[in-house]
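INFO  loader      accepted 1 record
INFO  loader      residues=91
INFO  predictor   begin
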Amino acid sequence: MSSPHSLAAAQARDARDPLAGFRARFALPLDAHGEPLTYLCGHSLGLLPLAARELVNEELDAWARLAVQALGAVPRKSHRRSCGTERRAPR
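INFO  predictor   done
INFO  writer      dumping C-alpha cells
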C-alpha cells in the first residue's frame, strides 16, 4: 500500500489538480541546468505572469506615441480582459 505522502501520491494529486494549467501562465525560475526551482518566497510580488510583458509594452508604446495624452486615452483589449475593467454603458 502506497503512503499518502509518497512521490507517486503527490504526482497523482498534481494530475487531478484543476488549477494545474495556470502554471504555464508564469515565468518559472530555472537553475543552472535548466531545471525548475522551487519558489517559496512569501514577501515578493510572486512569479511574473507572462501576460504582464505584453501589457507593459502596450503602455510603453502608447506613452511613446501620445506622451501624457496616453493616460486613459487608449483602450487596450488585453488590459480589459485581464483586469475586468471593461467599460460599461452609464445607467
